[in-house]
Structure formats: structure tokens, C-alpha cells
């Protein structure tokens, strides 16, 4: 297997981080608490607002999780450990990193994690 060049992925990680931060700054308002004053807003409008709020909060959670994975990947690049599984130490397939440069696990460890214990 050819050795992975971390510089190839570093800029993609940095660009994705900037994109996520930009989206987070504009999306914060949608996750705010919904006003439940029935005299000002009808029931269906409140239900719609609550649904929008829940979707926004889930998107925010996913962005935060991805930002964390990106920060960890950038740390691995600085530590010269990028491209190797954090569980078993084996090389992560380059095709896997091409899809998700923040991927911390090889396919074997990721599959084992999905299956769970047992």
C-alpha cells in the first residue's frame, strides 16, 4: 500500500472546518427557544417552529461532532500519525480517507464498532 501524504488532506480538513463554522454562525438563531405565547402564534405555527428547532439542534450537534473529528485529524497530522487507525494502528485505506479525511478508523475497526460487543 502506498504511503499517505497528509498534506493532501490537511487543506480539505481546514476548508471543511471553515465551512462548518460559517454555517454554525448563521444557523444559531434557528436553534433558539421557541416562544409558546398562544396569543401571538397559532398552534400549528408553534408545532412547525418546534420541529424546525429540533432539526436545527440536531444539525448543530452533528456539526459539533464533525468539528471535533476534524480537530482530532489535524492533531494526528501534526503528530505525524495521520492515516493510521486510532484503534489498531493499521493504515487506513486511501479511498476511505478520500471520502472522509477525518476518518479515525480502518474499515475493520469501524465494522467491529458498528457490530458492537458480542
UniProtKB/TrEMBL annotation:
Assigned keywords, A-Z: Metal-binding, Zinc, Zinc-finger
InterPro entries: Znf_DskA_TraR (IPR000962)
Domain of life: Bacteria
Gene3D superfamilies given in the database record: DksA, coiled-coil domain (1.20.120.910)
Cytoplasm found in the keyword field: no
Keyword Transcription regulation attributed: no
Molecular function, one GO term: zinc ion binding
Zinc finger (dksA C4-type): 85-109
Protein name: TraR/DksA family transcriptional regulator
Species this protein is from: Sedimenticola selenatireducens
